[in-house]
Fold this sequence. Notes:
By secondary structure, the protein is an alpha+beta fold.
Amino acid sequence: MGGRVCATGIRLLPQVTEELTGYDQARRTPTYQAQDLPAFVTLARNTWTVIPVGESRCRVTLEAQFQGRGALGALMGWAAVLQARRNARRVEADLGHYLRHGTPPPRKQRQLSRARGAL
């Protein structure tokens, strides 16, 4: 299955490669799992679900799982929860913009341009 590289915003784990490990077409549910994690992380996985809510609306839910090992793993777990809470509104806004306009929002386009320039 496919994969992607994601910036985490966490200093100890600045970027992670996620692999698409499952997709349920009927439930509109992809599951991604992080690969090549440091020893203090035993599992990092997220599942997105798209739920129709009427003719032209839907609700998207995200379930994230994180398991760490040792004290550093526990600290990273808390950091991951805080980062997810901080990013939730941005993810919602980005997804809404993409669905309405068919393009990433301007902030994300600038971020992608910078990343391409760094390659």
